């Protein structure tokens, strides 16, 4: 099966329908990712089918918990562009910011953005705690997403400050999601979080267990958060 039809099937099996143009954009992103990965560590997964399932289908699973139309979204710790780039390709109406602390990743993502010709997307080079303290980012987003590999207690402190009151933070998590959610209960409350909904599923075509944890933003985050100096990681709110 050619790449385009394989990708179409994988995404359709996981609940996402794409146009031919969108499929070709995703394939071009894959090609650029694999090429850049030869000189820069972006992903441990390079096989096309695996990338299609574990990066593309996983990123696009956000539609399980969110109606993706014209929301203003920030992807915190975007890394190689996940989930942001696939979301922007398939849901072009969103306004997207990609935030990362490593500039060379963003240089690559700017190349991808130019190559694919997507609009209403920007990259921001900063640590999350620095960006979240700035007026142009603090509580300015309808939706905050992150696939970053960090404990939920830590991620909540880094990410909830970006969400507007009435917006939400959605964390992509694995099999320990329930345990992490229990540990993060106090942090969620302290940082202005409200109702929490966890959507658990497995990606079709793999044994990849996933959870999307959606945390509503009920009230403004106190100004002292997020803390600097790595404290959200070294001393999470518990």
Question: Could you characterize what this model shows?
Answer:
The protein is α/β, with parallel strands linked by helices. 39% of the residues lie in helices and 22% in strands. The chain has a seven-stranded mixed sheet with strand order 3-2-1-4-5-7-6, with helices on both faces. The radius of gyration is 17 Å and the shape is globular. The termini are far apart.
What is this structure, in a nutshell?
It contains ten helices and seven strands.
Question: How is the topology of this model organized?
Answer:
Elements: H1 3-13, H2 20-37, H3 48-60, E1 72-76, H4 84-90, E2 95-100, H5 103-116, E3 121-125, H6 128-131, E4 141-146, H7 152-159, E5 163-173, H8 177-183, H9 185-190, E6 193-202, E7 209-217, H10 231-234
Parallel strand pairs: 1-2, 1-4, 2-3, 4-5
Antiparallel strand pairs: 5-7, 6-7
Helix pairs in contact: 1-2, 1-3, 2-4
């Amino acid at each position: 099966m050619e790449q385009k039809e394989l990708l179409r099937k994988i995404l359709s099996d996981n609940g996402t329908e794409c146009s031919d143009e969108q499929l070709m954009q995703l394939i071009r992103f894959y090609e650029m990712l694999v090429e850049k990965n030869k000189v820069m560590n972006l992903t441990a997964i390079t096989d096309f089918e695996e990338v299609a399932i574990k990066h593309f289908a996983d990123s696009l699973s956000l539609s399980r918990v969110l109606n993706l139309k014209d929301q203003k979204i920030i992807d915190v710790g975007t890394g190689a562009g996940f989930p942001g780039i696939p979301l922007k390709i398939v849901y072009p109406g969103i306004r997207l910011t990609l935030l990362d602390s490593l500039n060379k990743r963003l240089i690559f993502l700017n190349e991808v953005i130019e190559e694919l010709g997507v609009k209403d997307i920007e990259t921001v080079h900063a640590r999350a705690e620095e960006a979240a303290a700035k007026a142009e980012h603090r509580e300015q987003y309808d939706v905050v997403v992150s696939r970053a590999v960090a404990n939920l207690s830590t991620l909540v402190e880094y990410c909830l400050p970006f969400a507007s009151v009435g917006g939400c933070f959605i964390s992509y998590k694995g099999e320990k999601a329930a345990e992490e959610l229990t540990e993060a209960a106090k942090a969620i409350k302290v940082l202005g979080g409200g109702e929490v909904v966890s959507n658990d599923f497995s990606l079709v075509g793999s044994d990849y267990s996933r959870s999307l944890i959606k945390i509503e933003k009920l009230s403004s985050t106190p100004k002292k958060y997020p803390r600097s100096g790595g404290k959200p990681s070294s001393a999470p709110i518990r």
